[in-house]
Design goal:
The protein has 284 residues and is α+β, with helices and mostly antiparallel strands. The chain has seven helices and 14 strands. It has helices at residues 2-9, 145-150, 169-179, 194-210, 224-243, 255-268, 280-283, and strands at 17-24, 27-31, 41-45, 51-60, 63-68, 80-85, 89-90, 99-102, 121-122, 139-140, 153-154, 184-192, 213-219, 248-253. Helix 5 (224-243) packs across helix 6 (255-268). The longest helix is centred in the last third of the chain and has 20 residues, at 224-243. It is globular, with a radius of gyration of 20 Å.
Length: 284
C-alpha cells in the first residue's frame, strides 16, 4: 500500500511540454519544462510518430541535457517533449524466473509479457548504512572446485573475476550460475556482443540453469544509458529476490563495461576526464 501511495503522489495534476532546441551527437538539449532534476525520464515525440525515451543527465544555461535510450531517428528541432517520470522503478515477481529481459524490464525471449509484482523497486536504491549491513556469512559452495579451494567465498561476499578476452570468463559465470548452492541467480550481461548472448543462454547456461535465473541483457550496440540501466536493473531484481528471503547469486558481465557506459555519459555532459578518460561520476 505504501508503494502504491508513493506512486500516486508522483502523478502530476497537470502536464508540462517542452521542445528540443539542440541535438549534438547523442546529446539533446530541451527547454520549456520546469522542475526537472537529474535522472528524470522524458518522452520525445519524433517526427515519424514514434516516442523516444530520454533521461536528464545534466543542465546547461537553463536547458536540460538528455541522452536517449534508443536511436535518434526522427528527432529534430522543435519536437515536443513531456515528462515520463521522475523516479524510474520496476515491479518484479517470482514469475520472472527463467526469463530474459532488456534494460527497460521488457521481455525479449518471446515468451509473452512479464507478470507485474505488487511492490515497486527503485532502480537507484540507496545502499544501507554501514552499521545496518550484515556481516559476511558462512562458506558458500560455488560448485567450482578450483575457486572453492583457492578463493573460498562466503555468503554476502563480493568477488571480481579479471581476465583477458576469450579466456573463459562467461563460461565460468555460467558454471557459477548453474552449480552454486543458491535459490536464484540474477545475471546481467552488460555490453556483451550480440552473437554471444544467445550462446551464453542456450549453450553455457542451458535450460537447467535458466530455470532458476533471471537474465538482463544490454548488448554493446545499445546506447550507454541502456547499458547503465541494465546494470541498475540487475541489482534491483536481485534486491527483490533477497527481500523474499531467498539466497541470491548476482553476476554481472561486466562491471568494466558499466563503467565505460558511465564514462560515455559523463564525457557527453562535459565532465573533465581523469585516469584513462573516466569522469568523476564513475567513482561517485
Amino acid at each position: 500500500m505504501r508503494s502504491l501511495l508513493a506512486e500516486i503522489k508522483q502523478i502530476q495534476p497537470y502536464r508540462f511540454y517542452g521542445r528540443v532546441v539542440s541535438v549534438q551527437g547523442l546529446l539533446i538539449e530541451i527547454s520549456g519544462i520546469p522542475s526537472l532534476s537529474v535522472g528524470a525520464r522524458l518522452n520525445i515525440y519524433a517526427r515519424h510518430g514514434q516516442t523516444v525515451v530520454c533521461e536528464v543527465i545534466g543542465f546547461r544555461q537553463e536547458r536540460a541535457l538528455c541522452m536517449p535510450f534508443g536511436p535518434l531517428d526522427g528527432i529534430g528541432l522543435g519536437c515536443k517533449v513531456d515528462i515520463a517520470g521522475h523516479n524510474p522503478s520496476i515491479r518484479p515477481s517470482n514469475a520472472w524466473l527463467g526469463r530474459v529481459i532488456n534494460g527497460m524490464g521488457e521481455p525479449i525471449d518471446g515468451k509473452g509479457p512479464l507478470d507485474i509484482g505488487p511492490v515497486s523497486y527503485s532502480l537507484r536504491a540507496s545502499p544501507p548504512p554501514s552499521h545496518e549491513r550484515q556481516p559476511v556469512g558462512g562458506r558458500l559452495n560455488l560448485g567450482v572446485r578450483a575457486i572453492n579451494g583457492f578463493a573460498t567465498c562466503c555468503r554476502g561476499q563480493r568477488m571480481g573475476i579479471f581476465a583477458g578476452s576469450g579466456v573463459g570468463k562467461s563460461v565460468l559465470l555460467s558454471m557459477l550460475a548453474k552449480n552454486t548452492e543458491n535459490d536464484v541467480a540474477v545475471v546481467g550481461l552488460i555490453g556483451e556482443r550480440g552473437r554471444e548472448v544467445r550462446e551464453f543462454i542456450e549453450e553455457n547456461l542451458g535450460e537447467e540453469g535458466l530455470a532458476h535465473s533471471v537474465i538482463i541483457v544490454a548488448t554493446s550496440d545499445e546506447s550507454a544509458l541502456m547499458r547503465r540501466q541494465a546494470a541498475y536493473l540487475t541489482l534491483s531484481v536481485a534486491e527483490y529476490f533477497r527481500d523474499q528471503e531467498l539466497d541470491v547469486l548476482c553476476l554481472m558481465d561486466s562491471v568494466t563495461r558499466f563503467a565505460m557506459a558511465q564514462r560515455e555519459i559523463g564525457l557527453s555532459t562535459g565532465e573533465p576526464p581523469t585516469s584513462k578518460g573516466y569522469t568523476p561520476t564513475v567513482f561517485s
